[in-house]
Amino acid sequence: MAEHNDVGNKGEEIAQAYIQKKGYKVKALNWRYQKAELDIVAEYENQLVVIEVKTRSSEEFENPKEAVTIGKQRLIVKAANAYIEENDIDLDCRFDIISIFLLKGKVKIEHIEDAFIALL
What we know:
single chain; 120 residues; alpha+beta; Trna Endonuclease, Chain: A, domain 1
């Protein structure tokens, strides 16, 4: 497996543990719909929360949250709608981004709630 996949998987594991400590109930991990993938789908305070995880092992690249472009947001929203339909969910939905930085053995986590709105 490529090193960037290892970094991404590690970041998703860290993000999952982080939200579970905050009381989120994880419903799905890496849920796929067509060309889109929902990294984490969780329930928190009577809301469905779709979380995009972006992990970096260097500060030389763009900030992870900047990598969630409008096009990526549209894919996430489309997949979230499919997830909601498939699972017959009747909750409000929000979209979060969790940025994970793995730098020199240290972990920095930034959780942006309501990072974007559902635009198709």
